[in-house]
Amino acid sequence: MSASEAVTDALRELHARFAGVREGRQADYIPELTRSDPDDFGLALVSMDGHSYSAGAADTPFTLQSVSKPFVYALALASLGLDEVSRWVGAEPSGEAFNAISLEPGTGRPANAMVNAGAIVTTALVPDSREQPAFGRILTCLSRFAGRKLDVDEDVHGSEAATGDRNRALAYLIRSTGTLPVDPVAAVDTYFRQCAVRATAVDLAVMAATLAYGGVNPVTGERVVSPEVAAQVLAVMATCGMYDSSGDWLLRVGLPAKSGVSGGLLAAGPARFGLAAYSPLLDASGTSVRGHAALGALSERLGLHLMKNPALPGSTVTLVTTADVLPSAPSGRLARALHERVGVVAAQGALDFTAAERVLYALDESGSEDADPVILDLREVTGADSDALALLHAGLSRLAREGRRAAVVDPGDRLGPPDLVRERTGQDLPRFGSREEAAEQCARAVAGPG
Ligand code: GLN
Asked: What is the domain partition of the chain in residue ranges?
């Protein structure tokens, strides 16, 4: 027994709630997929610390099918960049089924990389050389997202290769437009192979968590793609990942997601969780019925909807006061009086742009008079991103120009290296190990010598 079992219990509850749903049917246009067990139902969740939770058939392997698409898109983006990839495949929801013939009139460019036409182009764009064949790169990439070596279900691959005329037809149509610098027809078999890569619901949750964690696999710690590529992929998943039900999914579930016709479904809560479900019974758009229900309920239960403001109000600034509350006030009447006017602002946690704005606002609130010195205590700050730092530096620079003295308590150098701070703020910001030292120094500095 352990406290974190409560997370598993939440998954078990959802599993029990939806396991009895018998609606939907297995995909049969790839005959081998009908051999899956329609009762199988697994759920998995992986946190940004790489903690993994699951319920039901979360270790049952199935083929990725369309769940492979966002990850191969990530590989193409990482190899060629967004501008080049966007020349050949768009980023607009098609509003059509996954296997629709959705090619832009005139250019023949597929609407997005989540429908089959766009995915075939995406696969064709993956660099292919004798030393490093495209499929080898794809399998390595998928494996790094999952954090373990994945393999191909040869029977499913053979089954789709034998019946995949519609996808071949799409590839011929794309080739007929004559603009693509690579051959989409030759890429179809590679596409079938990537669709036949085998994984479990737990693997899918790790893959989603890697996108949610800005491209770093939270279980292995390996950086798989850049934060920019991870964001680009999540954006396309949000608008196009669920085909012609993408709008409704974003409205109700509120997460970037991707489904596949074998019954796999994953969703990413950016900076929060990777979620996944497996259940082979599909609705009309090719999405797992139980998976859809369970991830929808989970998103609601955990408050994961993207459009709900995740920032907790007031969680950044922990103290706005004057230094006279500190235990050791400097002696001397003048020094003490000034000490009473030294403002203190303490911040905590991770600072992003939003949090940095709170800190700057608190600095303004902290003094009764414009010239009163202020101490910014950053000891409880765990990190700051570059946007937050730039804003803090700019704010401190304004204070300096307005003649307000500032000192920071920053033994961990959260404000960045002294050289950068000097350059950005135009001053040698005094840094201290404790609030008392900083307050004393501020009071004495204002009181002047003697
Ligand atoms: N391999 C499948 C196909 O191309 C993938 C489709 C899907 O999962 N939606 O038809």
From this structure: 5-302, 317-447
Phi, psi angle pair for 190, to nearest 5°: -60, -40
Cα separations (Å) of 15 from 6, 20, 55, 277? 14, 9, 7, 10
CA–CA separation, 218 vs 48, rounded Å? Answer: 6
Which three-class secondary structure state does DSSP give residue 1? coil
Q: Comparing 5-302 with 317-447, is the CATH topology the same?
A: no
Report whether pLDDT(212) > 70: yes
Decide whether any atom of ligand 1 lies within 6 Å of the 94 Cβ.
no
Residue 427: what pLDDT? 82
| Helix H or strand E encompassing 443 | helix 435-447
User: What integer pLDDT is reported at residue 146 of this predicted model?
Assistant: 98
What's the 66 CA to ligand 1 centre distance in angstroms? 5
Arch. (CATH architecture) of 317-447: 2-Layer Sandwich (3.30)
d(CA 210, CA 187): 26
For ligand 1, whether the C-beta of 53 sits within 6 Å is no
pLDDT of residue 257: 98
State how far the alpha carbon of 200 is from the alpha carbons of 115, 204, 253, 340, in Å.
22, 6, 22, 62
Q: Which atom of ligand 1 is nearest the CA belonging to 119?
A: 4
**Residue whose CB lies within 8 A of the most ligand 1 atoms, among 26, 28, 29, 30, for a mutation test:** 30
Q: Is the Cβ atom of 280 under 6 angstroms away from ligand 1?
A: no
Ligand 1 pocket member 160 (CB < 6 A): yes
C-alpha span between 219 and 118 (Å, rounded): 30
Give the CATH number of domain 5-302: 3.40.710.10
Coil vs helix vs strand at 148: coil
63 CA to centre of ligand 1 in angstroms? 10
The structure tokens listed for 406 are 């500032």
- Two structure tokens written together for 150: 């994945």
pTM: 0.88
Cα Rg, the chain, nearest whole Å:
27
Residue 450 has what pLDDT?
A: 53
Pick from 28, 36, 65 the residue to mutate for probing ligand 1's pocket: most ligand atoms within 8 Å of its CB: 65
Q: Are 237 and 258 in contact (CB under 8 A)?
A: yes
Question: What share of the chain in percent tops pLDDT 70?
Answer: 97
